[in-house]
């Protein structure tokens, strides 16, 4: 079948990989000249298979007042005259219960474990892919006893779901990651997950592009899809500059921009942009920087070594579609880095902003729509790199008529 994928980010490219392997004639279309030019460009680089608990959790509501007033809060909400933003916030707040959060964690772990298996199979099958992939393991740091207590509860819960994680005291954290030695007195402890990976998402996408081009996948770049139209017999097709790009099936994988593309068809996906930032430091020889992937839980900042660079990412600002960087947010991220890894934080860094395509519950939307040839793979929020291979495999299986996994129903578009 001829399949057109809108979006050359990590989700569109992983989908293209799985659909090409299934024997389809695949074309990827994107408005930029290069693949991974938007959110998949500079993300945190964490393949975070065991850390999928959603932002919408039971602890969030009590933290909200502080987040709303503190300038350096990890999450910020700027109210706008935008019904979509308010609907998203209400659905988010409704999801902030223990029951909902545990259910979402359970659902996402099933998808992330599938993704891990498929990512490792991909790496074995395609040894030419070079994207700074490391089996780094991950250490999540907690700075007070209450946070550590919550983490232990989560560890026990996730152990029942198959996660291999270990609680460490502050000394053990430093023994595992000596670059934390200076901050040892500030640590209450940490959770170590040996099975987590890190990699460069943009390089992953560029590698997939090369491999797919060699296998006959077409890339139609610098081609924005202005709208989706429906023919009299219910067939959806994409339009660029008034001209149709036809295919048997159309997959929307357009990240944070998907809601506006789908709305004219009457498809309302609850995907809203959550703006984040990253800094990328070139590591000079001898500089003390982490080898393990580190998450500073309270500050919601992640640190991942990508070859000879350190990627630092964090901040979630709910303030619309603008990518314009706020210098105060960059200063916050830089200050966090300097506080945890002083050798690194004072150096020059490449600054970047991106829009997480976030759903209120934190679950992606993958599968068919009420239009027989229109499919979605959107809404992966803070976990798009982590979930990409699993979501793409689900999509390819469903498109081929299969629905062996219960996951199809879990992540299927509503209505
Ligand atoms: C600060 C930050 C840190 C993050 N850290 C991590 C992490 O550590 N681990 C992790 O797993 N995830 C992380 N994420 C999330 C992850 O980056 C995203 O979930 C993922 O990149 C989304 O991929 P995507 O392909 O859906 O979107 P994108 O990468 O944005 O791709 C969508 C593509 O669609 C194209 N497009 C959109 N509309 C149109 C149109 N009308 N016509 C043509 N083309 C169009 C765009 O040009 C774009 O190339 C992070 C995100 C941020 C912002």
How does this structure look, described?
By secondary structure, the chain is an alpha/beta fold. The chain has two domains: 2-40 and 203-271 and 362-411, FAD/NAD(P)-binding domain, CATH 3.50.50.60; 50-99 and 133-197 and 272-358, 2-Layer Sandwich (D-Amino Acid Oxidase, Chain A, domain 2), CATH 3.30.9.10. Helices cover 34% and strands 24% of the residues. It has twelve helices and 20 strands. The strands form four sheets. Strands 4, 5, 6, 7, 14, 15, 16, 17 and 18 form a nine-stranded mixed β-sheet that branches. The protein has a six-stranded mixed β-sheet with strand order 9-2-1-13-20-19, covered by helices on one side. Helix 1 runs parallel beside helix 7 (201-214), helix 1 packs parallel to helix 11 and helix 4 (98-125) packs across helix 11. The chain is globular. The model has no long low-confidence stretch (mean pLDDT 95). Bound molecules: flavin-adenine dinucleotide. Residues 6-12, 29-32, 37-40, 43-46, 48, 224-225, 253-257, 261, 276-278, 302, 313, 354, 356-357, 380-386 line the site of flavin-adenine dinucleotide. Flavin-adenine dinucleotide is lined by residues 6-12, 29-32, 37-40, 43-46, 48, 224-225, 253-257, 261, 276-278, 302, 313, 354, 356-357, 380-386.
What's the helix and strand layout?
Elements: E1 2-6, H1 10-21, E2 25-29, E3 46-47, H2 60-69, E4 75-77, H3 83-94, H4 98-125, E5 138-142, H5 145-159, E6 166-168, H6 170-176, E7 189-193, E8 197-198, H7 201-214, E9 218-220, E10 227-230, E11 236-240, E12 243-245, E13 249-252, H8 258-262, E14 272-282, E15 293-296, E16 301-306, E17 309-318, H9 327-340, H10 342-345, E18 349-358, E19 365-368, E20 374-378, H11 384-399, H12 407-411
Parallel strand pairs: 1-2, 1-13, 2-9, 4-17, 5-15, 13-20
Antiparallel strand pairs: 3-8, 5-7, 6-7, 10-11, 11-12, 14-17, 14-18, 15-16, 16-17, 19-20
């Amino acid at each position: 079948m001829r399949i057109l994928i809108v979006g050359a980010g990590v989700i569109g490219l992983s989908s293209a990989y799985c659909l090409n392997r299934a024997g389809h004639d695949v074309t990827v279309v994107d408005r930029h000249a290069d693949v991974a030019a938007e959110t998949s460009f500079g993300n945190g680089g964490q393949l975070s298979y065991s850390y999928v608990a959603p932002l919408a959790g039971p602890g969030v509501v009590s933290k909200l007042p502080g987040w709303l007033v503190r300038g350096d809060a990890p999450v910020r909400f700027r109210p706008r005259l935008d019904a979509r933003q308010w609907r998203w916030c209400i659905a988010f707040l409704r999801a902030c219960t223990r029951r909902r959060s545990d259910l979402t964690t359970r659902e996402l772990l099933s998808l992330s474990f599938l993704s891990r298996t498929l990512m490792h199979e991909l790496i074995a099958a395609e040894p030419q892919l070079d994207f700074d992939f490391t089996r780094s393991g991950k250490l999540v740091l907690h700075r007070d006893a209450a946070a550590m207590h919550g983490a232990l509860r989560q560890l026990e819960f996730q152990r029942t779901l198959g996660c291999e994680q270990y609680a460490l005291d502050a000394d053990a954290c430093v023994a595992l990651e000596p670059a934390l030695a200076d901050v040892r007195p500030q640590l209450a402890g940490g959770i170590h997950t040996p099975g987590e990976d890190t990699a460069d998402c943009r390089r992953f996408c560029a590698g997939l592009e090369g491999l797919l081009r060699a296998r006959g996948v077409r890339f139609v770049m610098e081609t924005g899809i202005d709208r989706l139209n429906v023919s009299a017999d219910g067939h959806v097709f994409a339009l660029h500059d008034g001209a149709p790009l036809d295919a048997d099936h159309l997959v929307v994988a357009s990240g944070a921009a998907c809601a506006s593309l789908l709305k004219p068809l009457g498809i309302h996906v609850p995907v809203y942009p959550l703006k984040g930032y990253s800094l990328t430091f070139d590591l000079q020889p001898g500089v003390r920087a982490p080898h393990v992937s580190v998450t500073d839980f309270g500050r919601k900042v992640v640190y991942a070594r990508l070859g000879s660079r350190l990627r630092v990412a964090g901040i979630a600002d709910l303030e619309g579609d603008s990518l314009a960087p706020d210098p105060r947010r960059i200063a916050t991220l830089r200050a966090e880095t300097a506080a945890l890894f002083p050798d690194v934080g004072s150096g020059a860094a490449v600054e970047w902003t991106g829009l997480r395509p976030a759903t209120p519950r934190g679950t992606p939307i993958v599968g068919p729509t009420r239009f027989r040839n229109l499919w979605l793979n959107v809404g992966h929020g803070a976990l798009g790199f982590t979930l990409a291979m699993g979501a793409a495999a689900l999509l390819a299986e469903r498109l081929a008529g299969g629905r062996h996994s219960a996951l199809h129903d879990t992540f299927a578009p509503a209505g």
